[in-house]
Amino acid sequence: MRAVKSDTYSIKELACEFGVTPRTLRHYEDQGLLTPERQGQNRIYHANDRVRLAWILRGKRVGFSLQEIGEMLDLYDIGDGRETQRSVTVEKCRSRIRALEEQRDDINATIDELQEFCELIANLVRDNKNDQWIRRDTGEPLRHYPPRN
Questions:
Q1: Which residue in 29, 56, 100, 140 has the most C-beta neighbors within 10 A?
Q2: What are phi and psi of 77, to 5 degrees?
Q3: Measured between alpha carbons, how far is 96 from 109 in angstroms, rounded to an integer?
Q4: Any idea what the CATH number is for the domain that residue 4 is in?
Q5: Alpha helix segments (H runs only) across 37-78
Q6: Which domain holds residue 41?
Q7: What whole-number distance in Å separates Cα of residue 82 and Cα of residue 63?
Q8: Which residue, among 118, 119, 117, 125, has the nearest Cα to 142 in the 3D structure?
Q9: In-domain check, residue 123
Q10: 36 assigned to some structural domain
Q11: Is 57 inside a domain boundary?
């Protein structure tokens, strides 16, 4: 495998370095995210392709779609010293963080509800004499669970 500072990379070298398949690189090329040079049937990747691939894979890891990643990558060379790319990327990242925090809150609420439900069910005992379920901790009958047969 070539050193990171190489000027060019084959599809196999780049795929191996990043732990992806050549098919993945071709897919990113089909999506317009990578634009390797062609020499006959061979794809020749340059340092900028390597940087773009790192950006793509990081974006995917944190949940961005390929379309969102492409929008951020397209802002690289608009001539403003990458200021627009930076600000758009920061806003997309903050938006993604908010969405993940909301998901986390929903998951935590579901976990809490499941724990309460589990504790309730584990705490029930059957009172066959009165044909009902009783809460072990309070001795109170439980209404509505489980349904009678």
A1: 56
A2: -110, 40
A3: 20
A4: 1.10.1660.10
A5: 47-61, 66-74
A6: 1-66
A7: 22
A8: 125
A9: no
A10: yes
A11: yes
